[in-house]
Design brief:
It is globular and about 40 Å long. Helices cover about 45% and strands about 10% of the residues. It has a single domain, classed as 3-Layer(aba) Sandwich (Rossmann fold), CATH 3.40.50. The longest helix is centred in the middle third of the chain and has 17 residues. The chain contains six helices and five strands. With about 180 residues, it is α/β, with parallel strands linked by helices. A five-stranded parallel beta sheet has the order 2-1-3-4-5, sandwiched between helices.
């Protein structure tokens, strides 16, 4: 069982139900004949603190073999301390591993208007947590979307949430790393 703990990027914010990358993942698993159920426990607006507080009960209820953590963007949007984001991601990773699950961190980046130092440190913390906790890593969930030649075409009017047509590219970022863990 694969548990996805994320924010609006995984919760299909502004999309028709069933068109986000998590739903596409379920379809891909079925096509690949991989017998894995997916539980999407993503909540729009969630932070790493919110995910951390919800994770224990989710692990107990669903007993996942794999946990995908897609959190951190809302921490950055709120200007929360990077040390707090890093600690929450590390604790979530450790909790999931202690429960017997493999963990895949789905990294995020922030726009350059946050300043070079903050932008670089934020982007690097996902790799640091993954390395220190022997977890898998997707360095940038929105690679090929947010950094596409004309990225605004792939985003909803809010310029934050990808349109449905961007979600196959998001799954393409997740799948190679998840597939390694499923073997």
């Amino acid at each position: 069982m694969i548990l996805v703990v994320g924010d609006s990027l995984s919760a299909e914010y502004g999309l028709k139900r069933g068109s986000g990358w998590v739903a596409l993942l379920e379809q891909k698993l079925a096509r690949e004949k991989i017998p894995a159920r997916v539980v999407n426990a993503s909540i729009s607006g969630d932070t790493t603190a919110g995910g951390r507080s919800r994770l224990g009960p989710l692990l107990a209820q669903h007993k996942p073999t794999h946990v995908l953590i897609e959190l951190g963007a809302n921490d950055a949007l709120r200007g929360l301390p990077l040390s707090m984001t890093e600690d929450n991601l590390a604790r979530m990773t450790q909790s999931a591993k202690q429960a017997g699950a493999k963990v895949l961190l789905l990294g995020m980046q922030v726009p350059p208007n946050y300043g070079t130092d903050y932008t670089n440190r934020f982007g690097a913390l996902f790799g640091k947590v993954a390395k220190e906790n022997q977890a898998g890593l997707v360095p940038f969930l929105l690679h090929g979307v947010a950094d596409a030649p004309e990225p605004l075409k792939l985003f909803q009017a809010d310029r934050i949430h990808p349109k449905a047509e961007a979600h196959p590219a998001i799954l393409d970022n997740v799948w190679p790393e998840l597939k390694k863990q499923l073997k």
